[in-house]
Sequence to fold (388 residues):
Amino acid sequence: MKNPNLIPKPFAQNGQKDAIPANYKSDLPSQKATWDTGFPQITMMPVTAGGLPPSGRDFNGILNQISDNIVYLSQGGKFKYSQEYADSTGGYPKGAILQSDDETREFQSLTDNNKINFNKESSEIVSAAWKQVSTTQLLDELNKKLNRSDVVQSVGNSKTQVMSQNAVTDSLNTKQDKGDYATNTALNQVNDNANNRLEKEKNGEDIEDKNTFINNLGLRDTVDRAHHSLDRRTGGEVNGDILSQENISAKGIMSADKGFHAGTAILTPWGDIHGTEWDGWISHWIKRHYGKKNAAEFMAGNKGWWQDGSSGIIFQYGALSVSGGNFDFPRAFSNECFAVLVTNTNSQGSRIDNAFGYQINRFQFYAASKTEGGDIGRYPVAWWAIGR
Fold:
């Protein structure tokens, strides 16, 4: 079975989106989506019947959270124990498999509604609620074991097989018992003969063909390596690649004309860094997240709005030919409305009146005129609101 088309990043990762509450509450906006109820009934009704459209930021928030889980699994991620999730759902079900925080073990739940954190609790408490089903230590221990096929019943030259006890015993039984099989005189003659052939005092000086002698001892490669090695006292230059299985450290300055590589990360000579953590070059990441952003604006008739692209602050304004009621903002504030300011335009009643208003929610505000006696009027007013 082939992989489906894998999603490279969560939906609306860099777009505008709202967090989706887990449960519905009465103080939420009337068209706000929640995980337990979905989109409310008012979003299913026609606008002519008083319905309200669902929020695009809610759609982005829902798809972002769902695809965030899908991308995590597509990248080979395994879920770890979450106390917050266990508390919110009543605990993990029986059979659930989770990875430890140090990513070396996996545990399977033995009970339903399991809220035992196997990363923190004692082994006694954990063993009653979880079963360890996988560990990297198990693989390490298996690699140390000897395969049965590597135990042989005969002698040989293999460096990866061993003889059984029985084969060793049988082989030793064929050997002669320890004894003095040469006289001291004979041994002295052998020693004298050896000294005459190669005098110890000369320390090899009397070897005529030293190169052949080195070759016969199997030391040619060692001599060549020593000849071409770096002198620790003075250093040197290496023309080929250097591969180290351990760490390399330096007390001075390390320099590279073409940059440094660490895994898939790159450090350039001009100071830029490239890696998956930055989704490319860090200079591009900084420009995307902290560079100057364009503002957005809208105007239609006698009302409009303007939003600062960097801070998200929204200014809205307009004029009402008739006041004294609830009115819609030209656009909903994304998070909240800070204040609504209302003033008279060019019409007042027979008595002195003042305009006033206030925000109702992110979508509407109230505006009216009021006489000095406290009577509410419906005279023309202009208004201005700020929020984000």
In short: The two ends are 49 Å apart (CA to CA).
